[in-house]
Amino acid sequence: MASPHTSDASGRVYPMAPLIRSTLVALYLALVLPLPLLAPDPLRPLMAAAVPLGLLLILALVSEQVEIDAIGIRVGHPGWCRWLLRRGWFLGWDQITGVTAVTTSQGGRVYYVRSAGGGAHLLPQRVARFEEFLDDVEQASGLDLSGVGRISPPWTYRLLALLCWLLLAAEGLCFALVA
Could you tell me if 154 and 122 are in contact, meaning their C-beta atoms sit under 8 angstroms apart? Predict the structure, then answer.
């Protein structure tokens, strides 16, 4: 596979980490699947239609990806949902001037990529193959990213995933006993 700073036009794509993506989808399902069954009769059809639409929106949100090539770094969504979620950014490697760490209110740390024009863009920290991603950005930009880490440790998403699946199982059991 070519490194991101070669002339290979395809570059590399880093999707959201599967553990994070599946956990967020499971959380959505655990929270909203019971709603159509618990809603008053007049609202049930509306709720039943809203659940798959909401799932589609969640799937679009967790499809964010980072593309790295010889020209720069792009954060955005794939074509199937880009029209809906227009947020994203691109910086050429020559535009990047530094990285700034910012502590979050929850005690975590996020990083902003600073650009020559004075802008700052949130460095993705929830991508698959995070260490490889950091190495690629470091090599292409010349920045020292040795102190950059994930926004939260993987055990937090594992615990949340376990709780979501337990909640889904309990909901399924409850509805099976009631039906």
Answer: no
**Contact of 117 with 98, CB cutoff 8 Å:** no
pTM: 0.83
Q: Higher confidence at residue 83 or residue 93? A: 93
Chain centroid, CA 177 distance in Å: 36
Mean pLDDT of 99-104: 92
Look up tokens 């199937």; give the residue.
80
At residue 59, the pLDDT reads 96
- Phi first, then psi, for residue 72 (nearest 5°) are 175, -155
Domain ranges of the chain: 12-178
Percent over 90 (pLDDT), the chain? 74
Query: Is 16 in contact with 63 (CB distance < 8 Å)?
Result: yes
Task: Copy the structure tokens of residue 53.
Answer: 């639409």
